[in-house]
Amino acid sequence: MPTSTSDDLRARLRRDLADNAYPGYVYGYPHKKAYRPLAAPVSLEEAWAGEDRSALFCYVHVPFCNQRCSFCNLFTFVPQGASPTAIYLDALAREMRAYARALGEARFARLYLGGGTPTFLETGELRRLVSALRQELGISPEQAHACIEASPETLDAEKIALLREVGFQRLSLGVQSFVPEELRQVNRRFDFGLHNDAIERIGEARFPHFNIDLIYGLPGQTMDTWRQSLKRGIESPATSLFLYPLYVRPLTGLSRRSEAPPAPSPGQMGALYDLAVELLRGAGFRQETMRQFRRDGEGHLAELEYRCQRDGTIGLGAGARSYTQRLHYSTPWRMVGRNIRAVVEEHGSRMRAGDTDVAHGFVLDDDERARRFLLQSLLHDGLDRAAFRELFPHDALERFAPQWEALEEERCVARGAERISLTPRGVRHSDAVGRLFFSERVESLIADYEYDA
To answer: Does the predicted TM-score (pTM) go above 0.85?
Structure first.
């Protein structure tokens, strides 16, 4: 049970709102920095025993990039020398077969290829990966509303045609900025013309869903340059935009730079967010979350088939996270390239040896499960109190009364008869709102996390 009082939470929230604090991305729970070695390894069969397998999410992690952006703290590295992709694809196929044996009959409602840069793979390698997913796990990209992340310098006409041919419904392009100097400041050093070429080719391919990622808070960014990027995004054929506030994390290139143009302050970042909301709303976009904006007319992908707070996820590959109701697990998270490479190599060795046991993760008790369901519901489309009561032996309002008191006082939530939703102010400060529901156990584990060096 939480020990934080209403006064504690109220003071914390008030401080974060006043400072326009960005405590870190809060889109899932618990955070990967809360994962630790398990007391004893767990087999895949044991981890998934009793789990609903009727609407699963399959996430495939490709931990390779052509270059490492200086803001990036993701599990990815730039390969040197011989390409590691063939060995990595072999390991993925072995892991798929292990999951097929452990899961038995299962249906996948969603497929997502992330990274890293999945389109770092050559066209033939992408075809091989999709074929393995079909053969080993029965995953059809067309039926699983498949999405793939891409970067402009890794796309060509042949690769885009393949992705449409094999059934991908959504492509998400990491543009980050339409201002060349801003990209140079974060080590995205490739021909800027590739941005326009990629966007044009993707538009011509007519993916049902085409997303562009943009970042605000970049070194040297101003209201005018941010407006320029937003305008280009609006004018593009993208059906949605994801807007990410920049977080400078330990061991990233930005954290080590002593000379760089000044980045927007937290207050200025708030103004950049407000500008985006205003411009996108005026251009016919609807805001789904703090970060996601969809053009009117674009629907959700498999919204009724998969709910992240309810259904399970299998993560394939080094760096991927898997979620069951009681256990979240992954390989260890690393930040430094050589350490990430070592984890990838170890993952390959384990798959070759048939060692698919789970050894690193987080065990969720009933309290942590309740927090996860609440947080992921509230930050998306609101918390259904009846759905919460069906799963947990208490009412969400009573169970987390101090949090709701603080949020209502600061006008961050609106309470209906059976649904609690974020107000526009709450959406603007989603990360601070979500952090209020972290348990003291998770907060302590995050605080004690030791970054690799």
So the answer is: yes
